[in-house]
Design a protein that fits this description.
The protein has 170 residues and is of the alpha+beta class. It has two domains: 5-50, Winged helix-like DNA-binding domain superfamily/Winged helix DNA-binding domain (Arc Repressor Mutant, subunit A, Orthogonal Bundle), CATH 1.10.10.10; 63-148, Lrp/AsnC effector binding domain/regulation of amino acid metabolism (RAM) domain (Alpha-Beta Plaits), CATH 3.30.70. The protein contains five helices and eight strands; from the N terminus they run ββαααβαββαβββ. The strands form three sheets. Strands 4-5-3-6 form a four-stranded antiparallel beta sheet. It has a two-stranded antiparallel ribbon with strand order 1-2. Strands 7-8 form a two-stranded antiparallel sheet. The longest helix has 13 residues, at 38-50. It starts with a strand and ends in a 14-residue tail after the last strand.
Length: 170
Amino acid sequence: MFDNNMGGESMREKILEMLSCNSRISHDQIAVMLNMNPQDVTREIKAMEEEKIILKYSTLINWEKTKSHTVTALIDVKVTPQRGVGFDEVAERIFRYPEVRSVALMSGSYDLSVKIEGKTMKEVALFVAEKLATVEHVQSTMTHFVLKQYKQAGVVFDDKEEDRRQVITP
């Protein structure tokens, strides 16, 4: 496996950084930027996919500019940990729901942070009440609805539109 160290950062890390910024960048472009052979880049990316370092390639979309806008909620979940498995089994039961986009173990007053998406606030509320809150060992939930997304994955969403109002002077 190829792992040249470039100023404290491995070749793999540089490739991963480039892919995380632009998943559509070609292997040839990466090779030129890192002064590598394109076949080595392709081989390294394939190896990272097989090792489950690279899990998925995705596109960042500003859903507010589309007609199919969804409702996103962040839910703090307090859980009773289970002997021998801690929070893992409860987290797994939660992340198996298709509405759930992410689950993370957190420090602080809540144990799990769950991000879900639905078509309406009511749909999200029903998911929390009927599915999430009824999971065994879930003590409590606190739901926060995302009202506006300003920045995600390092990308600022708000493209300031110029003021088109006509100036009226006396």
